[in-house]
Amino acid sequence: MVNLWSLRYAPLTGGPLVHDIHTFGLIFKDSVEYAPVSMSWTGYRFSDNITALRKVNKASGREGLKNALTDFSGPGQNFLFADTAGNIGYYAAGLLPQRKSVSGIFIYNGTLSKYDWKKFVPFKSMPSVYNPGEKIIATANNNVGDSKIYISNMWEPDARVKRIKEKLAEKEKFDSEDFKMIQRDERSLFASFLVKSVLDAFGNAEIHDKNLKTAMKLFKNWDGEMNRFMQAPAIYSYYRIELIKGIFGDEMGRSYLKNLI
């Protein structure tokens, strides 16, 4: 997270200068230059989200909700709804910048107007879902909805949303206590996947190291429950950090790797 108290603001772009926090090598044409970097964000723009959320709370039906969300500017949020007729739906709402023939994942020369935001994606073009065939809509920072517009290339892995769907598929009707249990669920499908790959890699190999043998035994009897009083989650968490270091450490260098883990 960027320390907002240490930021200076770029008067032309309206965003904070972040180059003192991290060193950026900027590629302009065929050369690499080190220059001030400003971070623009739709959250710096004037908004009337309070009015928009009041309209959401008073919306009657799907169309009323859509009309209310057109006034919501951001930051980008997921809105899910269900009505008394049994319909369910999802809308992504918030200002999403459109650029002309450039991608939002790169840093561009802010002194050139061709890289400026041109306009914002119309709400009708934002991702949405209505009465999907599986009768379940779940969000956990994953890519939701079928949209042709570019939003991001850094979505959360699907392990969390798969776990939510697993829980929602367990029964037909849920009460408040059921949803509390889902909210407090600690099982990690990603941990189960990664641990299985470790167990498969060792196979039936004879293990002589006492600590490693204990770890493998704990992994074999672990279902991915990230309970802080259990041994397996601690071993897994440490292994995951070391795995990232082993895969990316030599290419990324220590400073970049520190930001990743």
Q: Any overview of this molecule?
A:
The protein has 261 residues and is α+β, with helices and mostly antiparallel strands. 35% of the residues lie in helices and 12% in strands. It has helices at 49-58, 61-69, 159-168, 176-183, 189-202, 210-220, 231-260, and strands spanning 8-9, 16-17, 26-28, 31-33, 77-82, 88-93, 97-99, 117-120, 128-130. The strands form 4 sheets. The chain has a 3-stranded antiparallel sheet with strand order 5-6-9, covered by helices on one side. It has a two-stranded antiparallel sheet with strand order 1-2. Strand 1 (8-9) and strand 2 form a beta hairpin. It is flat. The two termini are 13 Å apart. Residues 1-13 and 26-31 have low confidence and may be disordered.
Q: Could you name the key traits of this structure?
A:
alpha+beta; 3-stranded antiparallel beta sheet; 7 helices; 35% helix; flat; disordered N terminus
Write the layout of secondary structure elements.
Elements: E1 8-9, E2 16-17, E3 26-28, E4 31-33, H1 49-58, H2 61-69, E5 77-82, E6 88-93, E7 97-99, E8 117-120, E9 128-130, H3 159-168, H4 176-183, H5 189-202, H6 210-220, H7 231-260
Antiparallel strand pairs: 1-2, 3-4, 5-6, 6-9, 7-8
Helix pairs in contact: 1-2
Number of beta strands = 9
**End-to-end CA span:** 13 Å
Radius of gyration, in angstroms, nearest whole number: 23 Å
- Into which percentage range does the β-strand content fall? 5-15%
The biggest sheet amounts to: 3 strands, antiparallel
